[in-house]
Amino acid sequence: MKLKREDVKYLIIHQTATLKDQTTFEKIKKLHLRQGMGNIAYHYFIEANGRVRKGRNETTAGTHTKASGMNLKSLGIGLAGNFNLEEPTNSQLESLEKTLRYLIKKYNIEIDNILGHREVWNSATECPGDSLNEWLVDFREKLKKEKNL
Ligand SMILES: [Zn+2]
């Protein structure tokens, strides 16, 4: 499915729900291919050491968030880790912030449209885990302060 630039209104954050030090881009891509997704589910993937890997093309819809038809109006960013059990590394968070700021600017995304998977209406998931979702709540506050909202 194609994703047009003007369709991208949301950025959705995910966890792999596997321990970060045992999780690589290649492993997750292989898993998603086996599940018939045709590629890794996400547009960007951030490994434990903070390395940002390009997933699917931004002009192709992801397969990361079925709820609310979100795959057709968002880009997905996955982080290696289970953030109910562990914390993201500082390098991961730095890379996530950089990636989000780049995409927010590129697509003119509203701050309240940067969501953890669990925050999507009608989703039933723990994703992206407690510690990463807490970071995201704080990150949105920080962006709002910068914009004086
Ligand atoms: Zn998810």
What do you see in this structure?
Helices cover 31% and strands 14% of the residues. The chain is globular. With 149 residues, it is α/β, with parallel strands linked by helices. The mean pLDDT is 97. The chain has one domain: Peptidoglycan recognition protein-like (Lysozyme-like, 3-Layer(aba) Sandwich), CATH 3.40.80.10. A five-stranded mixed β-sheet has the order 3-2-4-1-5, with helices on one face. The longest helix is centred in the middle third of the chain and has 18 residues, at 90-107. The chain is built from three helices and five strands; from the N terminus they run βαβββαβα. It has helices spanning 25-34, 90-107, 130-147, and strands at residues 10-15, 44-46, 52-54, 74-79, 114-116. The protein binds zinc ion (ZN). Residues 14, 64, 117, 125, 127 line the site of zinc ion (ZN). Zinc ion binds at residues 14, 64, 117, 125, 127.
